[in-house]
Design goal:
The complex is a heterodimer of chains A (about 425) and B (about 130).
Chain A lengths: L2 H24 L2 H18 L9 H23 L11 H6 L7 H15 L6 H11 L5 H8 L3 H16 L10 H23 L10 H17 L4 H14 L25 H14 L7 H14 L8 H14 L3 H15 L1 H8 L10 H13 L3 H14 L3 H19 L1
Chain B lengths: L10 H4 L4 H20 L6 E4 L6 E4 L15 E4 L20 H14 L4 E4 L2 E5 L6
The chains are: A mainly alpha (about 425), B alpha+beta (about 130).
Amino acid sequence: MNELGWIDLALRSARPRVLGALMRYFRDLDLAEEAFQEACLSALKNWPGQSPPHDPAAWLIFVGRNAAIDTVRRQSKQAPLPPEDALSDLEDTEADLAERLDGAHYRDDILRLLFICCQPDLPATQQIALALRIVSGLTVKEIARAFLVSEVAMEQRITRAKARVADANVPFETPDEPERVKRLAGVAAVIYLMFNEGYSATGGDALIRDPLCEEAIRLGRLLLRLFPGEPELMGLLALMLLQHARAKARLDGAGAIILLEDQDRRLWDRGLIAEGLALLDKALRHQAAGAYRIQAAIAALHARSARAEDTDWREIDLLYAALERLQPSPVVTLNRAVALSKVHGPAAALAMIEPLAAKLGGYFYFFGVKGAFLMQLGRSADARVAFDRAIALAHTPTEAAHIRSQIDRLSRENKN
Amino acid sequence: MLYAILCYNDEDITSAWTKEEDDRVMARLAAVTETVAKAGRLGPVARLMPTTTATTLRKAGQGKRLEAGPEPPVVTDGPFAETKEQLLGFYVVDCASLEEALSFARELGHANPGGAYELRPISLFLPGTAVT
């Protein structure tokens, strides 16, 4: 790695911690980001030709803090009265510039930074975009590319989202335990959203966007390092690793979807699977199972099956039943029906999903799954209707193409 | 004399490596070890999974006496984090599950109370040839 390579990497990996600390000092996202930029510029000037500082994050926080104090001073000369909030910790900061960084603070700093991005009134894609911009430090251009929208559109989306979170007033005091639990759950949800947006895109041309999956995994690792005893974070990371391990096998050379049962399992990433299984093993030592752990356990059953026909569908059905009890949702039932169809046949599975029609009437997967069950039952005309509906609801051309290939199969079978 | 060389680095940074960067680092390291391996002087090489996969068994007895203390050993999630104890050795053992590895560690802890064991899955293991 060349010199700029290591500096870049050090800046990138220090970012959540540094920005989190600067947020605690200045309580203003724009000011904190600006201070971080200043600190990075200073690092790029000072670090080349030297060995890395012993603690790059501490160096950056120190320099960033000074830069922001200068900014606030300059602004206070122009504006008659600086907002109280922006100056809240400033006197302490000045009095104690050489203060050593308090390690106990920084996990809550990073958690707060992530939590700011996951305000529930923001649309999911804006939460993800904001987390990518603020916590991961991806450029607007990179995020726009990941979402396959124009840079201008993404810039606007992020600006709007930032304005919304600025009003959200996330408290800066060290959170008590219930508040911390609440934040962790919110943050885990936005990380999983980010992963899912990469795993199965809701828009654009490409079905899979690896950078989103990889960034979500990176954040999942970061969070679990900060809170090593949280079983749901273990479950979440295990789930993402086990799913992402299949990335190379999920599409064929032409970009068409390959279903789980038809995938070449030799293409699955054994390293990611081993790490996912190790994490799940840890998570399962804890008592009551959470939603991420159950989903990870399901993914693990697939990962452990050398061939599709070895899959323990009975166990998967039981796990989905447990997930249904814990987190009732028509989508979970739909997934359970797929497992059920392998154990008890398509008629039972179809009966299970019929009552979901009202709730999932606008859901691509519902009609894809329903069509597949009908096809297995030999009800071609009904299957065709379901598949047509699925195509109309497809998010990406890849999804639509997959359903068309099912229809082709249907017509071929009818001719025979 | 056999030497163990223990590898330390900032996980925030190494986990931010792309697959390509990781492969490049591993290839450069392999080139260095190759010469020593050819001379029959390289023992086992292991790459550990990230610390997020670690589990720590705090042994009974706290090292104050040889018999196991009254408190049972305590299992916690995460890596060994104390700085007042030093790394003294390691075992590599093939186990079907974390539970199995923990029960082996508990037996070791019974034989030698005090201190702690950190259990960490291994992602890459090359047995080597040096040791006779």
